[in-house]
Amino acid sequence: MLRIASASLAGTAIEFYDFFVYGTAAALVLGPLFFPTFSPLTGTLAAFGTYAVGFIARPVGSVLFGHIGDRYGRRPVLVASLLMTGVATTAVGCLPVYADIGTAAPVLLLLLRFLQGLGLGGEWGGAVLLTAEHAPAGRRALWGSFPQMGPPLGFLLANGMMLTLTAVLSDAQFLGWGWRVPFWAAGILTVCGLLLRTSLAETPQFRGLAETGTTSSAPAAEVVRGHWRLLLLTAGGLSVGYAVFYAVTTWALAYGTGRLGLTATMMLALVTAAVVVQGALTAPAALLGDRVGRRPMCLAGSGFATLWMFPFVALLETGEPPLMFLGSVVALIALVAMFSVIAAYLPELYEPRVRCTGAAVGYNLAGVLGGALTPIVVTALSDGDGPPWGVAAWLTAIGILSTACFAALPETRPLPAVPDLPAVPPASDVPPVPPGHSGEEPARV
Q1: Dihedral angle over CA of 112, 356, 237, 307, nearest 10
Q2: What are the residues whose beta carbons fall under 8 Å from the beta carbon of 374, sequence distance 6 or more?
Q3: What DSSP state is assigned to residue 409?
Q4: What single string gives the DSSP state of each residue in 332-358?
């Protein structure tokens, strides 16, 4: 389990490094380099627009790779998605800018961002199922938290490299060539990730489906037909996680350097420190999720994030780094409660034959509302003289939606207080949906 979970962690860290390094670059340099004819605000909005394309591509990638995962196995997804994301990210670092080739530069940037999102859309489903379907039921949240530590680790790698470059290079050097270095590094990381993943075995649950000939021939259609309610509720529930994370790590970066006058180095250090705390608390929160259940953790996280958005904006507006750090780290801690258990929760909601598609599509649909729209909307809402209370209102509204969606979802497993639970064989820990069942209610573990 440790080898499998470590390989999943390494892969998600590399792929999210690719994704986050683009977001950091979008906040700092992509506007003036690829949209120089726009005003500074419009250029930033345009850069975040290309950033949003990656989120729009992610549900498409989850359908594409989910079909492969449910039809041919979880393992091929891990290799193909990593390769696609790594190649696209490395290519961004080689792109000529607007001054070199004109409007072709932002068009090519848009295309590569789409391919990057396509690959990441497949990555999450394959990685979490690799651990969740190998893990014992009583520790599924704990082992599933390993790939969930990949996003914070990927963010730290991306921001750490950007932080180092902004500290040692002049502004002219960073704008001229320094911003490309993190994208080139993605190629090296991709090769390392592929070496780790090619030796992994297929999950026991998929092997059981393949041996009995019960794999789904059209998993996407089956999910839409039989699990549409779960799909919408999980997407709505997770949207606050995306919205708050990208408000803290992307919009706040642009707002702090542009409006509040802090240096890029200071803002990168502040956000990086907050994400370190998030990553460190993920595994302990997952252990708690194995004891108290998935749904209570998700409700607690989304509810607290909702209540914290106005204090977060107020602390950010002070321009004082310690207070800005406090606002950011508390917001990310609220997200830990949700995302520490979601790699166990989502697969448990879907029957094994379609869970690669169902879990991945639900997870990545949340990114369209929470991740794609949030940087654009909050950048527009913060264009004024006073504190950006509109940003807090937007994030609070998404938090209310998410909390309502989690309240409508069921728990997926008996809690530890139930005595004398029978042992469940690992290869069939989620029983199939009985004949005549609609599929909308999940099979209980």
Answers
A1: -70
A2: 242, 243, 246, 247, 251, 394, 395, 398
A3: S
A4: HHHHHHHHTTHHHHHHHHS-GGGHHHH
Domains and CATH numbers, the chain: 2-204+219-412 (1.20.1250.20)
Which pair of tokens denotes residue 75?
């393992």
Mean pLDDT for each 10-residue chunk of the chain (445 residues)?
83 80 79 80 74 83 90 86 89 91 89 88 82 86 88 85 86 88 89 80 83 85 89 93 87 85 86 90 93 94 96 94 95 93 90 88 86 80 82 94 95 52 41 44 42
Whose structure tokens read 């602390």? 315
What is the phi/psi pair of residue 184, to 5°? -65, -35
Q: What is the pLDDT of residue 333?
A: 94
Q: What is the pLDDT of residue 415?
A: 42
- CA distances 118 to 75, 77, 196, 234, 248, Å, are 17, 12, 21, 20, 24
Element (H, E) at 114: helix 104-132
Best CA proximity match to 124, nearest among 347, 302, 275: 347
User: Directed axis angle between helix 373-381 and helix 219-246, to 10°?
Assistant: 30
Q: What is the pLDDT of residue 237?
A: 94
Tokens of 347: 């697969």
Please, are residues 82 and 189 in contact by the beta-carbon 8 Å criterion?
A: no
SS3 162: helix
Identify the CA nearest to 19 among candidates 371, 256, 432, 419: 371
Residue 429 DSSP symbol: S
Per-residue confidence (pLDDT) for residue 421, from 0 to 100: 37
| Amino acid identity for residue 73 in this structure | G
DSSP state of 386: S
From the list 243, 253, 249, 319, the residue with the least C-alpha distance to 28 is 253
CA angle 365, 366, 372 (to 5 degrees): 90
How much is the pTM? Answer: 0.78
How confident is the model at residue 255, as a pLDDT?
87
- Looking at residue 387, what DSSP letter applies? -
168-185 burial string, b = 16+ CB within 10 Å, else e? ebeeeebeeebbbbbbeb
Q: Which residue has the tokens 């990310």?
A: 332
Amino acid at 310: F
Structure tokens given for 26: 């979008």
